[in-house]
Amino acid sequence: MTDASALLSEVSQQLARFPGLLDLLVGELDEATWRSRPAPAEWSPVEIVCHLRDEETEDFAARVGVILNGGARFARIDPERSAIERRYREADTREALAAFHARRAASVGWLATAVPARLLASAERPDGGRLSGLDLLAAWVTHDRLHLHQLAGTLARSWASRWAPLHTDYAGPIPYASP
Fold this sequence. Notes:
The chain is mainly alpha-helical and 179 residues long. The protein has helices at residues 4-26, 31-35, 45-68, 79-85, 93-111, 133-162; strands at 122-124, 130-132. It has a single domain (4-171), classed as dinb family like domain (Four Helix Bundle (Hemerythrin (Met), subunit A)), CATH 1.20.120.450. Helix content is 60%, strand content 3%. Helix 3 (45-68) runs parallel beside helix 5 (93-111) and helix 3 packs antiparallel against helix 6.
């Protein structure tokens, strides 16, 4: 059985660390790079940051809150639709990043008040199956890391495309096909 206290502590540390990693990747991007997609169906850096901002409160914190408050079922969310309806690609990049920072700081502070034993409970997903609070905590850090990977790949493609026809593929396989 997973030690809820140990997981909560480690997750809190990882969640607190993530905004700094994100800043290192996007802190000096120009507007064109912020909005550049590595492929037509993929997200640009600003879309990734807006997604992280909204998922912070509407997905992970909200769902952990359901568990901590004894809820039985999670609300349905649709991140892909949100990206379109909320026009992520047109968002102010600095505002989106600042909002993510504020929401993440609030999440980390809120988790510090969580009772670890309550995270053993679970709730029903809208599409079936169940997730415990521990599942959600572990997935929250994984979500961050998956989007770091996505963002790094997006920036690698942007860099390689910017300097074409130079042979940037000498470095290794570049994510996303060349446009």
